[in-house]
Structures are given as structure tokens and as C-alpha cells.
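Subgroup meeting minutes
Present: P.N., E.W., G.H.
Scribe: E.W.

1. P.N. recapped why we're keeping a running log of single-chain structure predictions: easier to compare across weeks, and new members can see raw inputs and outputs side by side.
2. G.H. added today's entry (183 aa).
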Amino acid sequence: MKQQGFILALLIALGAAAILYLMGRPPICTCGTIALWHGLIDSGNSQHLSDWYSLSHIIHGFLFYGATHLLMRRRPLGIRLSVAVAIEAGWEILENSPIIIDRYRTATIALGYSGDSILNSMSDIGMMALGFLFASRAPVWLTVVVAIGFELLALAVIRDNLTLNVLMLAWPIDAIKEWQSAL
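Output recorded in log:
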């Protein structure tokens, strides 16, 4: 069955949604609305379907495709996608734990961050899957160019991106935090 891995990926995402619900995450933005795009840097981040951080999740998909292509080359694409979804779902659960929420608040510019809505977490998993599938079809050079373009776009608009997010979570640098806060 060629669809087996894709069905497994969907079940993993639904399992993550259930776990997030049991963790007490709100299903949608506590503001009561659902927006397709939330472009402001405020409490609406990580609450709606997409925001500037959605670009980072697409890049996750590029990276997970590359890793599974190298490590699981003989496995069907759907199985490799299900592995990527499991990793992304694991991150969404961890990201919404008190330890990571507190880390974001203290080490990054996300001072008022309260975690993601379940809708946003599912969208993040979907964005990763889109990035994964794009990378599976596009030439490597194009995937790299798009990733660099996304990183530079987010850096220019919100002074944050996947690279800075990882850096600031792992090794906060006051000068970067001050620069980001000046926006």
C-alpha cells in the first residue's frame, strides 16, 4: 500500500492534537477568531493558521526530507514523511510544555509567549509536510535557495528566523535579543 505512510503521518498528527488538548492547549486563539494569516508580532503569533514562523516550519520540512533521504533512502516517501511528522509533532508537544514556553519568554524576544493553539500546531505540522513534499519534488538547489530566501525574508521583516530561534533557545546572546527587541 503506497498510502500507508501518508495515513500513518495523518494519525501521528491527530495523536499530537489529542496530546496537546490533554495538555490544556486551547483549540483556537483565545481571542475567539481564526485568521488565515497573522502578520503582527504580538500575542496572536502561534495562535492562527499561519504567521511569520510558518516559514521556519516549511524549512523543517526541507531539512527532514534531506535527513530521511540520506538515512532512509530505500523507504517509501510516505514512511519517510511519517517519520518527519513524528519529529515535528514531538517538537510541537515539547514546544508547548512549560519548560520551553518559559525558555522562550526568558531567552528570546517572545516575552508574552504563552504557547501555540492546537490549530497553529496542526498548521505547523502541515507546513512542515508541505516543505517536505516540496523538497521531494524540487531540485536541491531550488530548495536551498527557497530556504535561504525564507530565512532572509523573516530576518528582514521580524528580525527572527529559524537560525536565530535555535541560537537564542540554545545559547541566548543579549546583543541579538536587544537588536530583535528594537523592532
